[in-house]
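Hi V.,

Quick status before I head out on leave. The structure for the redesign project is tokenized and pasted below; the design run finished overnight.
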């Protein structure tokens, strides 16, 4: 089991973020240290490491947040185990570690945690869902004088003919311990494989909606929890957006009605950080049409939009096509300023 000394804001939202290193009041330091010690003893595994999922957005921070991290595989761990411990999605971990056996990784093998992201080309407010990378970005409102932040969460999205709709919508409500009323099409699908669903599944451990849902302005589509954490980060839902239980609880308790929700599909993201141009490429979703034919145009469009910010930038096109071929979902330098 891995242990950390960090203040888990997502799981202990009542405690403000503090930096005990810059405080001078001795009494406060003692109290702060006591709080950190309590968190160390109670937080447990490193899944509460906020530095992997919450990032400050300084005015000059650019388009890339976070840093790639690495962990070593413990005995009998799988990539799904590591994903659950550190709160990453399965497909993202799989793409970032193509040479690691997902189900029987060698003990001591080094696993890359995809904790660095090019921010999507979308408004930096409210909720942005990028179905291609199976991630949700939440930009919480900040009080005057506070630094803006972005929170990045793994999600599951719609599969095949049940694709998640690409729309601009909003949060319209939330429900704790929701009942599930599976639509006829879902009941028919389950019945075809011998699984007869009732017309109502009450709240509880058998309810696939989990303990919380956020209602959207799109009828019958929600952002919700799950009773099957192993599927987070995959293309497995009937169109809804599925999150880890702790993540949806965090959002449901904080996100207000009328918060905008932008649901987009961006396989290719390009952006700047400290004079370096980064490109992030994700594998196409299953069932995507025209993915191969649109590859060049989409990549060049993403890079052209980024280049508008720095017209004199130099792009290494050989590296661009190498990143596109690998599709590892990791921000990779492909250009720089003169």
């Amino acid at each position: 089991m891995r242990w950390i000394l960090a203040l888990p804001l997502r799981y202990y939202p009542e405690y403000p973020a503090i930096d005990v290193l810059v405080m001078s009041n001795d009494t406060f330091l003692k109290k702060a240290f006591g709080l950190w010690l309590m968190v160390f003893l109670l937080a447990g595994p490193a899944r509460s490491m906020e530095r992997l999922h919450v990032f400050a957005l300084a005015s000059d921070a650019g388009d890339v947040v976070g840093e790639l991290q690495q962990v070593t595989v413990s005995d009998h761990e799988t990539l799904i185990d590591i994903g659950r411990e550190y709160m990453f999605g399965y497909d993202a971990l799989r793409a970032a570690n193509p040479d690691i056996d997902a189900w029987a990784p060698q003990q001591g093998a080094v696993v890359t945690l995809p904790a660095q992201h090019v921010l999507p080309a979308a408004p930096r407010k409210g909720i942005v869902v990028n179905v291609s990378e199976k991630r949700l970005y939440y930009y919480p409102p900040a009080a005057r004088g506070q630094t803006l932040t972005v929170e990045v969460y793994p999600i599951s999205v719609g599969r095949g003919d049940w694709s998640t709709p690409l729309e601009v919508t909003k949060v319209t409500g939330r429900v704790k311990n929701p009942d599930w009323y599976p639509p006829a099409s879902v009941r028919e699908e389950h019945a075809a494989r011998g699984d007869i669903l009732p017309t109502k599944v009450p709240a509880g451990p058998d309810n696939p909606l989990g303990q919380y849902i956020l209602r959207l302005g799109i009828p019958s589509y929600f952002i919700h929890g799950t009773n099957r954490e192993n599927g987070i980060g995959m293309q497995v839902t009937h169109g809804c957006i599925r999150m880890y239980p702790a993540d949806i609880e965090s959002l449901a308790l904080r996100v207000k009605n009328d918060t905008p929700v932008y649901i987009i599909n961006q396989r290719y993201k390009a952006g700047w950080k400290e004079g370096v141009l980064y490109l992030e490429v994700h594998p196409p979703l299953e069932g995507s049409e025209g993915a191969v034919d649109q590859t060049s145009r989409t990549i060049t469009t993403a890079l052209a939009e980024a280049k508008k910010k720095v017209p004199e930038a130099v792009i290494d096109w050989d590296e661009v096509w190498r990143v596109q071929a690998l599709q590892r979902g990791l921000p990779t330098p492909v250009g720089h300023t003169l």
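Above is the designed sequence. The chain has four domains: 1-48, 52-84+92-116, 122-264, 268-336.

G. will cover questions while I'm gone.

Best,
W.
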